[in-house]
Amino acid sequence: MSKHPDYERYRKQCEEAGRVDFYKHLISEGNNPGFAAMLAMQQPPGSKGTERAFLEGQQHWADKISHNAADALHTMAKKAGISTQGKKYIGGLGKPSDPMAWISTQDDVRSALKAKGLSSVGGVNYKAPEQEFKKRKMAPDILNKYISEELRNDKKLAEKVRKDPDKLKPLKEKIVSKHTKGKK
Fold first, then answer.
1. Which of 19, 85, 150, 179 has the fewest CB atoms within 10 Å distance of its CB?
2. pLDDT tens digits along 20-65
3. pTM summary value
4. Domain range holding 85?
């Protein structure tokens, strides 16, 4: 007779809680793994999407990184005036000085994702709406690199720009339009 597909998952949860013997006894009496785990651990099993499942183990998140790194994160947050009591830092949501990067519930994560136009799959699922970029921008050093390449490859254009630097403006616009997102 084959075991139920969830048997191992619930057995492991019961083992971590020190209740695996009672779990095995309940299984031997004919209970299904989910019900046996619930009785053995004396609590309903965690389920994806619940606040309990999301927050499980969050209280001691800083113990999972080096002491110095945890202190640095908390120091940066404190300097920014952020209370970190009961909160976990999520680097993907912002810098330690960003209050939205310090979360205590799924709603905090969802709010930060919405405010920043980010999407997430996993503990919190959220699909950000498509965004339309308003301006096209490019860092000056990158723009200059592309301009240099264009002028090196097009000697006629290089000569025109040398004689009249105003001819550089259309080239800049063309490069920015080609290599950035935004309105065309």
1. 85
2. 999 999 999 999 888 898 899 887 765 656 777 777 767 667 778 8
3. 0.51
4. 58-116
